[in-house]
Design brief:
The protein has 204 residues and is of the alpha+beta class. It contains five helices and ten strands, in the order ααβαβαβββββββαβ.
C-alpha cells in the first residue's frame, strides 16, 4: 500500500494549518497581511533612540578696522562649528557672511591672534559673495584642537581665532586706496587686508 500523501493533499493540509494559525493569531496575522498589501514584507524595526546633537561653538566676526567699518557698516559674519571630530574625524565649520563687497572672493584663516600681527595662521578655505554681498560656506576640518607645531623649537600654538581677508589685493582699494598693503593671506601669497575677525572671542 502506498502511504505517501499525494501532492494535492499536502497542499490542502498546509493551507488548513495556515488558516488555523491565522484564526489563533488573529490581529497579528491581519497586521502582517495589511503590511503586505501596502507593499511591505518582513518586520521593520524602528529605533526609539536618536543620536544626540553635537556640541557647537559660535563666534561673531566684525570689521577689522574703523576704516573698513566706515566702508562696510553692515559687514558681519557668523561662525558656527559643530564639534564632531571625535565622532566622525572632523568638525563642521560654517560661516555666514553679509554686508560685504559684492561678487568678491575672500579667504578664511584660523589664527593665533585675531588682529595684527596675527601670529600662527592656518588657511582653511575661500568663499565668494553674491551680488548682495552675502555668502554661506561650510568646511570640514579639525577646529576644536587646531594648532601649529614647530618641530625645531617643540612649541605648540593653539589656533582659536578666525579672520577673513580680501583674496585679491585690488579688492580693498575702493575703500583703502591703491596704496593699501598686499599681504600673504591667500594661496598665491598675494591678498588684500583682513576684512573681518573674531576679536576677543575664542574657539574651544
Amino acid at each position: 500500500m502506498n502511504t505517501t500523501t499525494p501532492r494535492y493533499r499536502r497542499h490542502l493540509v498546509a493551507a488548513t494549518t495556515l488558516a488555523a494559525a491565522a484564526a489563533i493569531s488573529g490581529t497579528a496575522y491581519a497586521a502582517s497581511g495589511s503590511a503586505a498589501a501596502d507593499g511591505y514584507s518582513g518586520t521593520t524595526q524602528v529605533s526609539s533612540s536618536t543620536a544626540p546633537a553635537p556640541e557647537t561653538a559660535k563666534l561673531s566676526l566684525k570689521a577689522s578696522s574703523p576704516a573698513l567699518e566706515d566702508c562696510f557698516p553692515h559687514a558681519r559674519a557668523k561662525v558656527t562649528v559643530d564639534l564632531t571630530a571625535d565622532a566622525v574625524g572632523s568638525d563642521r565649520f560654517k560661516i555666514r557672511a553679509s554686508g560685504l563687497q559684492p561678487r568678491t572672493p575672500y579667504t578664511v584663516f584660523l589664527l593665533e591672534k585675531s588682529g595684527a600681527p596675527f601670529g600662527a595662521a592656518e588657511y582653511i578655505g575661500d568663499f565668494e559673495t553674491n551680488r548682495y554681498g552675502r555668502a554661506t560656506t561650510t568646511y570640514n576640518l579639525i577646529v576644536e584642537e587646531a594648532f601649529a607645531f614647530n618641530n625645531e623649537t617643540q612649541s605648540r600654538t593653539d589656533l582659536n581665532s578666525v579672520g577673513v581677508w580680501f583674496a585679491d589685493p585690488k579688492d580693498d582699494d575702493d575703500c583703502l586706496g591703491e596704496a593699501s598693503p598686499v599681504t600673504g593671506f591667500d594661496g598665491d601669497a598675494s591678498a588684500g587686508v583682513q576684512m573681518l575677525n573674531s576679536g576677543t572671542q575664542l574657539l574651544p
